[in-house]
C-alpha cells in the first residue's frame, strides 16, 4: 500500500453557518459541491480540492477526539490493504461514498483516532 496524499479533514460543528463563514472569510476556503449525504454539512475547497468537510451536529461529542472527527488519505490497492489489515487483526469498515462510488475504508489507530482511506471507484472489491 502507498499513501498518495492528504484527502480532507472532517470537522463537526453545532453552528454550520458560522463555521462556513469562518473558513470562507477568515481562511479563504470556497464552498463547493458535496455528495447527497443524508446529513447536513458543507464542503470547503482550496485550489479546487475539498479540504474541509463540515458535518452539522445538534450537540458536539464530549469525547477527547474533540471537534475533529477523522483524518482521510487517498490510497491505492484496496484488496491488498484490506488483506494487510486483516493479517494484522485491525478491524475496519468498508463502504462506498454516495454519488461518487469512492471506496471508503475506516479504522481507528491505537489511540482511538479515526482514519479514512479513500480508493478509486474502479478498484476491485476486496
Automatic annotation (TrEMBL):
Residue ranges annotated for the VOC domain, each copy included: 5-120
InterPro entries listed in its UniProt record: Glyas_Bleomycin-R_OHBP_Dase (IPR029068), Glyas_Fos-R_dOase_dom (IPR004360), VOC_core (IPR037523)
Superkingdom of the organism of origin: Bacteria
Annotated PROSITE patterns: VOC (PS51819)
Keyword annotations: Dioxygenase, Oxidoreductase
Xref: Pfam families: Glyoxalase (PF00903)
GO molecular function, one term: dioxygenase activity
Membrane-spanning segments: none
Protein name per the record: Putative dioxygenase
Lineage: Bacteria, Pseudomonadati, Pseudomonadota, Betaproteobacteria, Burkholderiales
